[in-house]
Specification:
By secondary structure, the chain is of the alpha+beta class. 27% of the residues lie in helices and 35% in strands. It has a domain of 112 residues: 3-Layer(aba) Sandwich (Aminopeptidase), CATH 3.40.630.30.
């Protein structure tokens, strides 16, 4: 599948939200049960680190980072989200997005990226490992989704160029 990567624009939000909702519907991508409105999502994510993958004019995936800790000492630590449309999964879109997001985050001064992934999401765990993330641990019964306690694999990637 041919695709290009570029900066996410506000006009991409309907497609980004739709892909996010596809992920939510799997039950293994997020503890969220619905995607937020643009204003909430926009306020919670770092502006320079938002990417989309396009096949022609269609958005087929997205990746972004968000701050995980409020203290200024942790300003270089961010959480990562990567979502790929069902029609494009397994085509290399996720890996391309995550690699580009790593580069973008380093240019923005991020020294540690964190990912929180349900252990059942084997493809996402493998994707993050392939891009240099390591498993830090498993947070047991960290959140409830539809009344069921869910464990979360905590993974991180430390930059080799920022904060060294």
């Amino acid at each position: 599948m041919a695709f290009t990567l570029g900066a996410m624009k506000e006009s991409d939000w309907p497609a980004v939200r739709s892909i996010y909702e596809e992920g939510i519907a799997t039950g293994n991508a997020s503890v969220e049960t619905e995607a937020p409105e643009w204003e909430e999502w926009n306020a919670g994510h770092l502006v320079p680190c938002r990417l989309v993958a396009r096949s022609g004019s269609d958005v087929i995936g997205w990746a972004a980072v968000y701050p995980v800790l409020a203290r200024s000492a942790y300003s270089g630590v961010a959480g990562v989200s990567v979502y790929v449309s069902a029609s494009a999964r397994g085509s290399g879109v996720g890996k391309a997005l995550l690699r580009a997001l790593i580069d973008e985050s380093e240019h923005a001064g991020v020294w540690t990226l964190q990912a929180r992934i349900f252990p059942e999401n084997v493809a996402s765990v493998a994707l993050h490992k392939s891009c240099g993330f390591r498993t830090v641990g498993i947070r047991e019964q960290l959140g409830k989704l539809n009344g069921v306690w869910r464990d979360v694999v905590l993974m991180e990637r430390r930059s080799k160029v920022v904060g060294v």
